[in-house]
Amino acid sequence: MMETLISIRQLVTQFGTQRVHDGLNLDIYRGEVLGIVGGSGSGKSVLLRTILGLDHAYSGEIHFSGQALTHMPADDFARLKRDWGVMFQRGALFSSLSVGDNIQFPLREFSALSAEECRELMYVRLEMVGLERAVADKFPAQLSGGMVKRVALARALVLDPIVLFLDEPTSGLDPVSAEEFDQLIGTLHRNLKLTVVMVTHDLDSLFSTCDRIAMLVDKQVVVGTLRQLLANPHPQIQQYFSGGRARVLLRGN
Ligand SMILES: Nc1ncnc2c1ncn2[C@@H]1O[C@H](COP(=O)(O)OP(=O)(O)OP(=O)(O)O)[C@@H](O)[C@H]1O
């Protein structure tokens, strides 16, 4: 029996008269890697932002580990969110801070660790994401795209989260770097027993890394394994995977 970590019930989000989600239900299980997919503008980012408490204008219920997030006092929510690691698409590293200071930033803000302990933890996280110690002294502008993603990931992991939210983690990477990044996510997921929720357009990621896929269709989600989604006759789902790439990937396995 899977344990539900995040439960979303009857979610409705709306901008003006435009409804983005309409009665959306989704359970995210502890320990799984869930991919969120869907066409452009289907509401993937808004869903992620709503779970993260960045978009407030919604109705419905969101629970995390059994606690209702809706109407949770801001202080309590802030404390709870320290168990969440977040990596947004536009890496969002501070350009004026070194890599080491970027990674230590959440520690300095939220932990009572000494400067020495923060630095040690930072080096541990650097190693975890496959970067050498010397990278700590570089600045974001001196890094490749793949390295920026790894640094952003190290920072997202620095407070030992139990769930990691990734928004298009492999976008902008060449196929080799993207595959390496997928492998890294898979390794971290296994080693740290992380729950991972990622918005992605990358079929290779979906196939290699995700246990289940939640696809936004008709302002709600259809959830299943890639195989189950491929077998779903809904025209929008069929169209999304119609490039044949998914079938090629499945056949090769
Ligand atoms: N702050 C906002 N104000 C008004 N409309 C918004 C806002 N944020 C998102 N929307 C609208 O909500 C819809 C869903 O947007 P969202 O960014 O979630 O799509 P998406 O599935 O992430 O798309 P993409 O794959 O292109 O990033 C879009 O029609 C978008 O224009």
From TrEMBL:
Q: Which SMART domains match?
A: AAA (SM00382)
Question: Which terms are listed as keywords in the entry?
Answer: ATP-binding, Nucleotide-binding, Transport
Matches recorded under SUPFAM superfamilies:
P-loop containing nucleoside triphosphate hydrolases
Domain (ABC transporter) ranges: 6-242
Q: Name one GO molecular function term.
A: ATP binding
Please name the InterPro entries in this protein's record.
AAA+_ATPase, ABC_transporter-like_ATP-bd, P-loop_NTPase
Report if keyword ATP-binding is assigned: yes
Question: What is the recorded name of this protein?
Answer: ATP-binding cassette domain-containing protein
Origin species, per record, is Thiothrix winogradskyi
